[in-house]
Write a structure and sequence with these properties.
mainly alpha; Four Helix Bundle (Hemerythrin (Met), subunit A); about 0% strand
Length: about 130
Amino acid sequence: MSLNDEERKTLVGLEIEKSRRTFAEIDILRQVGLWDNIANRLYYAAFHAVSALLINDGHTVGTHQGAVVMLHQHYVKTGLLSKEDGAFYSQLQTMREKADYNCTYYATEQDTAPRIATTESFIEKIIGLIKK
């Protein structure tokens, strides 16, 4: 998709807004212990931030796996993000897929709660790259 600068800036802003709104849903879900849903929201909050970064830098991605590949190729391998950041994003994707599609897997508080603050930091790191 070919975007002019104004369209790109608008789309990046919308993705960041979506990331923040999605992350905010976690507090509500945590109050009622919906850990599978929290796994989903953690991933999608990060995904929308990553999408904003990719769009900001002119990369086109059509799949979730494509976003992982592009993040590693353009940001982890170049040192803009750490290997740990890349691994964390991949772990969020895997946890979300298991929680959403595997009927024998149930995300627990132990699976998800420790990732909440890390996801928030990851999103802020991504937003920092966009602002550079």
